[in-house]
Design brief:
The protein is an alpha/beta fold. Helices cover 41% and strands 13% of the residues. It binds pyridoxal-5'-phosphate.
């Protein structure tokens, strides 16, 4: 019988896409669902960015490009990262790929050896691809639990206790998906000390770097001694409302040539005309992205206040990204749902509100409550209507 490899048959996934299919099927049947599960801005890509891609097509910029990206884009990224992170980045250290996501796999492939027990530390709850790619590449995922009692911050003592001689890579994500937590400079300094002491690579997932609502964004790469060991990853998707354009980039002097070879081995190069659009996004007017970030901040206030008005829900104020991560343990109890996933289904089919459950972001840490994720990349009207539906759901389902 033809066999599928265990590597592939056991491959995990990003459940947001699975839930989205379920939600879209309901919407296609004419159901009026308010969708809080999509992790993408609900804005149009700014006009100047679209125009530069159209011009690129008209100018014949449609062939293959160098695997790490066109020189103009690598220069623009080096300048942008140097300016925003306060570090001296050279264009040669930059590789562009079809989204930020491929760099998660490329990094694990580049710093661990398959089957040797090499360990990758990653935040849990967290972006699911950190652990699915670790397993797929033959390394061992080691979750660092982020707890509500610690406001979902990194527990540095716990981090240190999880490091072994086999630990090769530490993954950070700030602002964090799904909790919205932001690592402070003080946290990053402590983490950096541990990374340097234990000679770890650090993957710093900074795709929400422009969405820090109350403080200044800080990158671990800017802490003295960290630049060489940090794989700094950012992208076009969240900042410029460009999810479908598929463009992201990573910065690291030593790994850039290897990432470039991985690009040659996989997609050859990023999309040519989209690269010209990102040059414009990075070097052109920032009025539109700044406006979008202001709107996200306003929505954060609206959704967190609204959620805290609902019986059985408790929500901390997220410092960044566009996610709220409320504790719904009490709501599960009140509605007779055995866990957050059962509650998610009740909310979808009864209240017509689409959210994701904590189990879509990793296993629930022992003793931790039930959580669901709201993406507030949707209009104020949808947020207010969603809160009203939640209140109504509570009224009807209180057991
Ligand atoms: N990293 C995190 C934490 C994300 O939430 C996402 C997308 O949701 C990505 C990476 C991937 O982004 P991209 O669209 O650039 O591949």
């Amino acid at each position: 019988m033809l066999q599928v490899s265990s590597r592939t048959s056991g491959l995990g996934t990003e459940n947001a896409f699975v839930v989205l299919k379920e939600v879209n099927e309901l919407i296609a049947k004419g159901e009026d669902v308010i969708n809080f599960c999509i992790g993408q801005p609900d804005f149009h890509t700014p006009r100047n960015i679209c125009d530069s891609a159209i011009k690129a097509i008209r100018d014949g910029k449609h062939g293959y490009t160098p695997s790490p990206g066109i020189p103009e884009l690598r220069e623009a990224i080096a300048e942008y990262i140097s300016r925003t992170r306060g570090i001296p980045v050279k264009p040669d250290w930059v590789v562009v790929a079809n989204g930020a996501k491929p760099f998660i796999g490329f990094t694990i492939l580049s710093v661990t050896d398959s089957g040797k027990g090499h360990e990758v530390l990653y935040p849990n709850p967290g972006f699911p691809i950190y652990s699915t790619q670790t397993v797929a590449q033959g390394a061992v995922p080691v979750p660092l639990h982020l707890l509500e009692s610690k406001e979902f911050s990194f527990d540095v003592d716990k981090l240190e206790s999880l490091i072994t001689p086999r630990t090769k890579l530490l993954i950070l994500c700030s602002p964090h998906n799904p909790t919205g937590g932001v690592l402070s400079r003080a946290d990053l300094e402590k983490i950096a000390e541990i990374a340097m002491k234990n000679d770890l690579w650090v993957y710093s997932d900074e795709v929400y770097s422009r969405m820090v609502h109350d403080s200044k964004f800080e990158s671990i790469a800017s802490i003295p001694g960290m630049l060489e060991r940090t794989i700094l990853c950012d992208g076009a998707s969240k900042t410029y409302a460009m999810t479908g354009w598929r463009l992201g980039y990573a910065v690291n002097e030593k790994l850039a040539p290897y990432f470039s070879t991985w690009m040659t081995n996989t997609t050859s190069c990023p999309n040519h005309m989209a690269q010209w659009a990102l040059v414009e996004a990075l070097t052109g007017s920032q009025e539109e992205p700044d406006r979008m970030m202001d709107i996200f901040k306003e929505r954060r206030g609206l959704i967190v206040e609204g959620l805290n008005e609902v019986d059985g829900i408790r929500c901390l104020l997220p410092g960044g990204a566009f996610y709220a991560w409320p504790n719904v343990t009490e709501l599960c109890r009140m509605a007779g749902a055995k866990n957050s996933e059962e509650l998610r289904k009740m909310l979808l089919y009864e209240a017509k509100i689409a959210v994701l459950a904590d189990i879509h972001f990793g296993s629930r840490p022992p003793g931790e409550g039930q959580h669901i994720r709201f993406s507030y990349a949707t209009s104020n009207e949808n947020i207010m209507e969603g809160i009203d539906r939640l209140k109504d759901f509570v009224r009807k389902n209180r057991k």
